[in-house]
Amino acid sequence: MMTTATVNNGVDLEQLGATIGLIKDDPQLAQFQFRTRSRWEGGARCVTEITSFYGAGSEQQHARTHVMVGDEPEVLLGADSSPNAVESVLGALAGCLAVGYAYNAAARGIDIEELTFDLHGDLDLHAFLGLSDEQRPGFKNIRATYRVKSSATDDELAELEAHVLRTSPVLDIVRNPVPVQINRSD
User: Which helix (H) or strand (E) holds 148?
Assistant: First the structure.
C-alpha cells in the first residue's frame, strides 16, 4: 500500500520530522558550512557561484550551480543589471524569515494561504565613499513588515512569529556581530 506524504505549506512534514529526529540522535549532523565563490567582472558587476556545501555529515553538491549577480543602480555608477549587495542582504533576510515562518507554521499545523515581506534598510554613503569615519558603512536600521493570510488565531500567529524571530539564522547574522576573517591569497 502506498502512502502519501503529509504536506503543509509546501513542506513535507514526514521528512521534516525525520530530519529533526536524526539531528536529535546525532547532533554533529546539524553542523553545516556554506560557501560561495565570487568574481568581479568590472565596474560594479560581481558574479557569485554556489556549487556545494558541507552538511548532514558530508560534502553536498547542489543539483546545479546557483548564480547570483550583483551590480549597482546607475545613480551609484552601475549598469543596474541586478540587485546590489545590500539589497541582496534584505532579500536574504526576507527569504529566511519566509522559510522559517512557512516551515514552523507547517510543523504546528498552521496553514498559510499568503505570506509577504517588505523590508527597508537605511544606509548613509559617507563612510563607503571615505567621507566619514563616524558613520557606519552598513545599514543604520532595517524595518520589516509582513502580511500573513491564515485561518490561525492571532495568538497562534504571535507565538509563531516569536519563534521565527528567535530562530532565524539570517536575522541572527544581521542582529549580532559575527567574526569575519578576510585574507588575501596569492
Answer: strand 139-150
